[in-house]
Amino acid sequence: MIAIKPTPGRVVWYHPRGTDGLIHEAGTPLAAHIARVWSDTCVNLMVIDANGDPHSKTSVLLHQEGNPRPDAGYAEWMPYQVGQAKKAEA
Question: Which of 38, 35, 32 is nearest to 74 (CA)?
Answer without folding.
Answer: 32
